[in-house]
Amino acid sequence: MVVSDRAFTARNIAVLREAQGALNVAFGAILSAYVGVSLSHMESQPFDHHTLARFFLGVAGFILCLCVGNSVILRGEVRLGILFLVLGAGAAYIGLREARHLGFETSVLRILSTCWIVALLGSNAVLTAINYLHHRDRT
Questions:
Q1: How far out from the chain centre does Cα 21 lie?
Q2: Least packed by Cβ within 10 Å: which of 13, 23, 92, 125?
Q3: 72-89 as b/e, with b when 16 or more CB fall inside 10 Å?
Q4: What contacts 24+ positions apart, CB below 8 Å, involve 125-133?
Q5: Nearby residues of 54 by Cβ (< 8 Å), 6 or more positions away
Q6: pLDDT tens across 13-64, in order?
Q7: Which of 18, 22, 20, 23 is nearest to 124 (CA)?
Q8: Measured torsion, CA atoms of residues 6, 12, 17, 23, in degrees rounded to the nearest 10
Q9: What is the total count of domains within the chain?
Q10: Are the beta carbons of 70 and 120 closer than 8 angstroms?
């Protein structure tokens, strides 16, 4: 039984979205654990609640823009996806700046963010390569 290119691509995208959903949950859990541990170490020190709120808004903006940008790229709208990724980078910068003021180890946050981005975009590249090879072999 030969699978059409559309069906093959649709199945691969469905599997990739499930995998990326699990990846987002995993990285979100790691981020939450790190933030929780960092805040527990600072419990004896006073910290600015407004700075903490800006940090969380920066992190939320980063996660939202990263996930939306990735989904838009999967739909084939690369320019719009890149726009969301750039907005996400700006939100990440704001979050890192506030994290530094709070006393977080920003290198850990940068490494985590970089791994997350590389994993999402790398999996998109793998899907593209698989679809290309499948299509190339059929023509």
A1: 10
A2: 125
A3: bbbeeeeeebeebbebbb
A4: 127/12, 127/13, 127/16, 127/74, 130/12, 131/5, 131/8, 131/9, 131/12
A5: 94, 95, 98
A6: 888 888 888 888 888 889 888 888 888 877 677 778 899 899 999 999 999 9
A7: 20
A8: -160
A9: 1
A10: yes
